Amino acid sequence: MSQTVIQVDSFTNRPFAGNPAAVCVMSGPADEGWMRNIAQEMNLSETAFLYPEAERYNLRWFTPVVEVELCGHATLASAHVLWEEGHLHPKETARFMTRSGELTATRDDEWIELNFPATPAAGIVPPESLTEALGAPPVFVGKNEYDYLIELDSDQAVRALKPDFGKIQSLPVRAVMVTAESSDNRFDFISRFFAPAAGIDEDPVTGSAHCALGPYWQTRLGKNKFLAYQASSRGDVVRVTVDNDRIRLGGLAVTVMRGQFTT
What we know:
Strand content: 35-45%
CATH architecture of the largest domain: Roll
Number of helices: 6
Number of domains: 2
Structural class: alpha+beta
CATH superfamily of the largest domain: Diaminopimelate Epimerase, Chain A, domain 1
Distance between the termini: 5 Å
Helix content: 10-25%
Mean pLDDT: 97
Largest sheet: 18 strands, mixed
Order of helices and strands: EEHEEEHEEEEHEEHHEEEHEEEE
CATH class of the largest domain: Alpha Beta
């Protein structure tokens, strides 16, 4: 089976930054084992597989280890590829049917805006193992259906974190997101995202995390529009707008590689 794969750096306008995702636009459904093998071969945080179906695209996301329920950067990459490769006109809305329902993407010059469900985190009493895994005392700990959300007392503390990935992997969540208000007035808040249980020790820029971070910082800062920075080694910016139970995520994307699988 021959399949074109396109690698896109998402949430950035420059190669080798942001979050890389592989995108496979297919003519129809594919075998799940084959998709898992492709995702393992690409060895990126996400590989997206999509095909047209009833004026939408059926979309699934795989890490090298697991299929995920919601992914921002690979959805942004998928929309970018659909427009860039001529599958959709640049003014058309990209509509995706996913395990998290219908998601959409629209284009405004170079920026792509995703419309995602909000996934707010409720405050909890943290397990002792969480603080041990992070190696830093939290100001707030919350949990949604996927992840822990942790606020630390400064963005310097977030940047300086050296978590124990083995201990994080043992926690009963997909991942741990850590955040703080930004001391850099260009940004409202910063974050980092650790997901060793999904095969990704630290994700570079995580769109889906901002579906929880947006509502959290709306409560903390009393507004609904943010410019966020994810402080990984490839980090870049995410525009975040909280719109009731939906989150609009804005980002840039750049194609960095095209290839062909022959089996």
